[in-house]
Amino acid sequence: MRTASRLILRAPLPSCAAKSTLRASRVHSLGRSPLPLSALPAVAPCRTLLRRNLTTGLNRSRPTLRPTTALTCRNTLQGSSASLLYILPLAIGAFAVYGAASYWNTSTEPSERVHHADLEEPAVEGFDFEAMDTLPGRLGNLTPEQEEKLFELWKLIFQICAVEDEDGGEAVAADEAPAPLQSRTSTAGSEKPKKKRLGLFKKKDKKDKENTPEKAAALDGLKENDPDDKFGHNKVFQETLANRTPASIRDALWTMVKMDHPDQLVLRFLRARKWDVQKALVMLVSTMKWRQDAKVDDDIMLNGEEHFLLQEQQGATEKDKKFAKDFLDQMRLGKSFSYGIDKEGRPTTVVRARLHKAGDQSEESLERYTVYLIETNRMLLSAPVDTGTVIFDMTGFSMANMDYTPVKFMIQCFEANYPESLGVVLVHKAPWVFQGIWKIIRGWLDPVVASKVHFTNNVKDMSEFITPNRIPKELEGDDPWAYEYVEPVVGENPKLKDTATRDKLLGERQVLYDQYEQKTHQWFKEKDAEKRASIKAERNEVAKKLKDGYWILDPYVRSRSLYDRVGILNEGGKLEYHVWNKSAPTNGVAAATASAPAVVETAADDVD
Question: pLDDT tens, 368-381?
């Protein structure tokens, strides 16, 4: 059998077929199989490798593959990627950056789309973000129907948060409950008298305002065992309403906003749930609950890299020191980094698959690193851009780099908690071993995510998305820049200790939250189109103050990151994407470059 396979692989390929195969394998989308099964090569030699590595309860079914020629085999295998099983969720999660781009244009009239691929030299200093048109479904480019969905979702948010208007009335009266909360089995022509709505829509007395609505008051039609509820959001939503006060839910939702326009954040969840208001609310509340449980804001981002430097040096136990070292080693190695923008103005993250090896870091450390990566990259978006580009550099990848343990956690991060954050994924120079696990990866990925993934084999392919002078030299581009981690400096976060100023700024934000809510209530009530437009403009102005105010608050609630230290992320949220200043000041403290440990890479034939 092996002899027969070798003979077939040596068979000559007609020139026309060779050209066709090369075209098919050069750049293609993950929305379908890399190539038709009839064109796939024999992969008998890799079956043993797959048996040795697929040991986490995954389906071990092998696709039916047919042998073809050496030329087809070589080019097809280059268009595949085994690293995706670990790296894809990690890097996509890095731009799970929901709502980070805030667009302040109050116009709702769509204009002609600007094709940024035609722009020359899209460096930040020459890239006109203001000239970019807003994509559909974003603030400034909503259809009347989409704006009505946004309107309805805010009503529901105010109901679960017990937000009253300035006259002390409910956000929505019982008989004005929006359509998504009506029973999905009822029809407009029903002759049965409708019962009064209870629970979420009843008039609350003082005692009710201090307690979250009971589980029975949850949205109609929610089922904990809903087959479409992939991550159990329905159950989380119901438990959150049952166990949290409206005030705590409100505080958590506003904490999530940060520098974003609140509408832009909410719209991400609407788009992710195809404008189903009920499902968008469930996803939004579930995400809020996840952020609190994961301590995203009050631990991971608050303590940051400096905390781990101190723990690595002075940790109370060896376990603490090891955990800190695991986290920092991933930064020092440069497993992933953000640098530059693509032709559409999207921040670009590069993931070096060859630098990960299962077991080098603990599962907890990997998860913390993932969330930290996501939230940090959230800061690197410039309106109206609200998605990122991810490059998976598969150079030197081997089976030893595959790691399955954190995969489901990472997939949940970017699919369940950071919706609508991915622009394009480029899988660069993928090795051949991906063929045997393609079915598994495809089954794990959301079809929308899969459709955004493309394979590239050389810098020419990549230049369709990024100009060559903005592609790093290690990816065969013209930019001589090379990654080097700049270590945190002890004492670089003095404002974190100034709790008095922090509390003062948080109090000012609370006033803005109240103003935004009241303007939203006025928007609910106003029927006159001209007055309604005026209210929307005033509401957007409050959102602008929230954005500017966040950047004043930022150094009091977020530890400085690598991107603060090198000068990419600057005071006031100003971004310089192609700067990597190794001695840039960080909150007045000069950064220092420490020697990083030697990078350990794996050979292509390293499978153990």
Answer: 998 998 899 999 98
Q: Which residues pair with 348 in a beta bridge?
A: 389
In the chain, the amino acid numbered 316 is: A
Compute the distance between CA of residue 370 and CA of residue 407 in angstroms, rounded to an integer. Answer: 11
Q: Nearest 5°: phi and psi at 466?
A: -135, 135
The residue whose two tokens read 């990472």 is 410
Q: Strand order in 388-393's β-sheet? A: 336-341, 347-352, 388-393, 422-428, 453-456
Residues composing the chain: 608
What six digits make up the tokens of 96? 């799970």
Q: Give the pairing type, strands 347-352 and 388-393.
A: parallel
Contact 344, 118 (CB under 8 A): no
- For 452-475, what is the mean pLDDT? 94
How many angstroms separate the Cα of 568 from the Cα of each of 55, 189, 195, 241? 41, 59, 57, 40
Q: What are the domain boundaries of the chain?
A: 2-78
pLDDT of 432 reads 82
Both structure tokens of 369: 């690193």
d(CA 80, CA 76): 7
C-alpha closest to that of 100 among 384, 345, 300 = 384
E-strand spans in 381-421?
A: 388-393
Q: Please give the Cα distance from 525 to 248 (Å, whole number).
A: 26
Report the amino acid identity of residue 85. Answer: L
Angle between helix axes 277-294 and 262-272 (nearest 10 degrees) is: 110
Sign, Cα dihedral of 198, 275, 89, 94: negative
Cα 55 from Cα 58, distance rounded (Å): 7
Mapped onto helix, strand or coil, the DSSP state of residue 540 is helix
The Cα-based distances of 427 to 78, 117, 270, 374, 458 in angstroms read: 10, 19, 29, 19, 11
CB atoms within 10 A of CB 144: 8
Q: What is the pLDDT of residue 396?
A: 86
d(CA 229, CA 246): 24
List of residues 6+ apart from 23 with CB closer than 8 A: none
| Cβ atoms of 136 and 420 closer than 8 Å | no
Contact 338, 351 (CB under 8 A): no
- pLDDT reading at 85 higher than 60: no
Q: Which amino acid makes up residue 348?
A: T
Least reliable range by pLDDT among 31-35, 243-247, 565-569: 31-35
Q: pTM (2 decimals)?
A: 0.72
Write down the pLDDT at residue 130: 63
> How would you classify the pairing of strands 336-341 and 422-428?
unpaired
Helix runs in 258-405, H state only = 262-272, 277-294, 301-314, 318-333, 363-378
Return the pLDDT at 450. 80
Exposure of 182 by Cβ count < 10 A (0-12 exposed, 13-18 middle, 19+ buried)? middle
SS3 track for 71-132: HHHHHHHHECCCCHHHHHHHHHHHCCCCCCCCCCCCCCCCCCCCCHHHCCCCCHHHCCHHHC
Between CA 300 and CA 146 the distance in angstroms is 35
